[in-house]
Write a structure and sequence with these properties.
Residues 372-395 are annotated as: Disordered. By secondary structure, this protein is of the alpha/beta class. The protein is 30% helix and 24% strand.
Length: 517
Amino acid sequence: MTESAYRTIRLHALGDILREHRRSRRNFRALVEGDVCYTYEQFDVRVNRLANLLRAKGMRKGERLLWMGQNSHRLLECLLAAAKLGAICCPANWRMSESEMAAVIEDFAPHVIIWQEAEVGDTVRAARGKVKDEHCWIQHDSDGPDSYEALLAIQSDRDDEERIEPELPVLAVYTAAFGGRPSAALITHSAVMYQNLIIGRVQGVDESSVNLNSGPMCHIATLMTTLAVFHHGGCNAFIARMNAEDVLKCIEKERVTHAFLPPPTIEQIRAINAEGKYDVSSCWATADAQEYNGNPMVAPASSPWGRNFGGYGQTEVMGMFSMRAFGGSTMAGRPISMVQVRIVDETGQDVPPGETGEIVVRGALVMSGYFDRDRPGEENETRSRDGWHHTNDLGKREEDGSLVFVGPKTTIIKSAAENVYPAEVENCLRTHPAVADVCVIGVPDPKWEQSVKAVVVLRSDASATPEELIEHCKARIASYKKPRFVDFADALPKAGFVVDRKAVDAAFGGGGYPKAH
C-alpha cells in the first residue's frame, strides 16, 4: 500500500511544472505576445480552461491535438493542456503546401485541430477539403462565438490534477522525409524535462530569462529553448514569424535574453540597426550584434553556450545530446550524461576511434518512436534495431572521446535553417507527367548556404520548362523545398542500379553540403 502510494506521489510530468509555477511564481510573466501578457497564474488558468474544453470535445489520454498555425502563445497553451490530459500536441509546419497539410492530418489523425486564418487560412481550408473530415476544428485567431478565445472564456478553470506517467509522449514533431514521407517523432514528458534542465544549464536560463520565439515552433531547435525557459520560470515572448524589424522591436520592448535567429536574419538586423535605432543590449553588447557567432540559438555571451557553442543531435532525441559546453575538442563536443552513444559499422559492431560509422544512441532523451510506424520494415523497427536508436547519421569518435558529425547517411541539403531531403523533392517531381528520372542536389549559395537544384530527364514524348517544374513543386510541397534551378540531362549517371549522386554533383555544380566538424 505504501509503495503504491509513493509511486503515485513521485509522478511528475510537464503539467506539474506549470502547477508549481502558479504557486511559486504566481505573478511572474510567463507569456508575452504584442500587447498580451499573462502571468504564470493566468497562464495556468488558461491551460486549465483549454484542457476542460478539449475534454468536453472528447479528447482523452493518448489522443492527439494538431496545431496548424504560426508562432503564438496559444501553441504553448495547447502543449501544456495536452500535457495535463496525457494527450499529444503536434505543431505542424505552417509553410507546408495543402497536399502536405492534408497528408499530416490523415497520418496524425488528430481529435482536435487548432488552426489559423492569417497567412495560412486558404491552405488550411484546401487541405481540409482533401481529407475525410472527422475532426474538431477551432480557429485561434478569430472573434466569433466558436473561436478559441470565446470557447475558453466559457470553460471552468478547474484543474482535475490527473496524474500523468512521465514516460507518456506529449510532443510530436514531424521530421524531414527520409524515404519521401515525413514521420512524427513522439517525445515523452521525461525527455522534454531532462532536456529542459540541460539546456537551462548550458544557455544560462533562469527565472529572469526572456526568450523570443522567432524561429518556427514546429522545429525542435526553437522548442528546446522555449521549453527550457518555461521549465525554469522565465518568460516566453512570441512573434508570428521571422521578421527582422519585429525581432528588434521585441528585443527592445521585452528585454530579450535568448532567441533563435539564423544568419540571414542577423544580417538584416545589422542593416536595420547599424545606427542603434533599437536597444538590443539585453542580447548583445553592440547595436549590430557583432559578437553573434553564427549559431542561431542566441544565448548570453557569459553562458557556457555563449562561450563554447556547438553540438550534435536530432529531433528524435529531443534536440542535442552532445555539446561542446560539456567539453571535448570537436564542434559536436561530448555526449551528455542522459544518453549513451556508440559509433557502429553495418553489422552493429563498434568501430575504433577515428573511424567512421553510424551514430547510435540510447537513454532518457530518445523518443518513444514514430507515430504509427510500427509495421514490419517501417521506421520504428529499422531505427531501433539491436536496442539502440539509429540516427542515420555518420560520425566518428576522437581519441579524447569527442564526437565528430561526418554527415547524413541519407543526403541532406541545408538551405538556411531548413533541412531539405532530396528524396521528398524527387518524389514530388516524379508525379509530373513529363519527368522520366530526376536527381535533386544542393548547390552552394552565398546567402542560404545551399540552394536546391533538380537534374531532370524528360520522357521522350514530353516537354517541360524549368519554370513549370518549379511551380509543380511549389504547389505540392513547402516553398523552401522547391528547386531554385532545373537542369536537363539525357540520362543520369548510375552506380550499379542507383543514381550516382557524386557524379551528378560533379557534372552539375553540386556542393556545400553539411560538413564534418
